[in-house]
Amino acid sequence: MSNQSRLSKKDIFLIVLRCVVALSLFTVAIVYYDELSNVDVKRLMSLTDSVPLMIVIVLAVYFVKALVFVVPASLVYVAVGAVLPPAIAVAVNLAGIFIEVSVTFLLGRFLGKEAVNKLLSRNAAGQKILRKNMQSKSSVLLSFRAIPAFPIDFISLFYGASGCGYVKYAALSVLGLSWRVILFTIIGDAVFEWIPMDKIILIVVCLIPLGVVWYLLKKFVIEPKKRIKENSAPSEGSCGSAECGETE
To answer: What pLDDT digit, counting tens, does each position of 25-47 carry?
Structure first.
């Protein structure tokens, strides 16, 4: 195998690190699935009488939600709306959404395009995302954020892995999600009872190992074989000695 076809130590380290991070998050999501998917945000907020500390707790929940995918957004929206005054609750939930879409975006950028695309391709909603030219059209991102049927974290992972600009992505994401955040915060979870978010979340979590396996296979088997084949192929315009002799 030529030096050109070998992965550097840095590349191998990054591949292993990405897999460790992905599998660690998957393990946490599975082991603590019941606790995370039924987290009592109101009880957590009741641990303190300080409104600033309550806000810190809520934002921490959003941060965890961005990494493990299994905390239903409606639980957070409604709980915050029930405890805090409406204006403050809406502002806190919008700040939390900004944190969530940012953290998952960075996670997608860290995991890489191949791993995220493979993960998305295993799910019907993810396949729709991949078929859209989402990077170049602001209206596409805005519409996907505004439609509750598409999981927030799927979109964030895709955009992070695709290498698109963060500022525009974050602004459009918060704008597109804001209407449902406000409704849930003020009205409650009766607005979207028909959306089976628990099923969608469970599917997303179960697809993580498949994405990791494909990522390892591609990096250590498929791509090295492809590089070896390209390096061993004769360059364009070259010819064997016998053929050259015949043409003289």
So the answer is: 878 888 888 888 888 999 999 99
CA pair distance 173, 97, nearest whole angstrom: 9
Q: Is 99 exposed, middle or buried (0-12, 13-18, 19+ CB in 10 A)?
A: middle
Backbone phi, psi, residue 150, to 5°: -100, 120
**Entry pTM:** 0.65
Residue range of the domain that includes 21: 3-247
Q: HEC string of the chain?
A: CCHHHCCCHHHHHHHHHHHHHHHHHHHHHHHCHHHHHCCCHHHHHCCCCCHHHHHHHHHHHHHHHHHHCCCCHHHHHHHHHHHCCHHHHHHHHHHHHHHHHHHHHHHHHHHCHHHHHHHHHCCHHHHHHHHCCCCCCHHHHHHHHHCCCCCHHHHHHHHHHHCCCHHHHHHHHHHHHHHHHHHHHHCCHHHHCCCCHHHHHHHHHHCHHHHHHHHHHHHHHHHHHHHHHHHHCCCCCCCCHHHHHHHC
Dihedral of CA atoms 43, 48, 49, 52 in degrees, nearest 10, equals -110
* pLDDT, tens digit, 9 for 90 and up, residues 215-240: 677 777 777 777 777 777 655 444 54
| Total number of domains in the chain | 1
73-76 long-range contacts (CB < 8 A, ≥24 apart) are 73/152, 73/184, 73/197, 74/184, 74/189, 74/192, 74/197, 75/38, 75/39, 75/41, 75/189, 76/41
Q: With the CA atoms of 49, 55, 58 and 59 taken in that order, what torsion angle do they form, in degrees rounded to the nearest 10?
A: -150
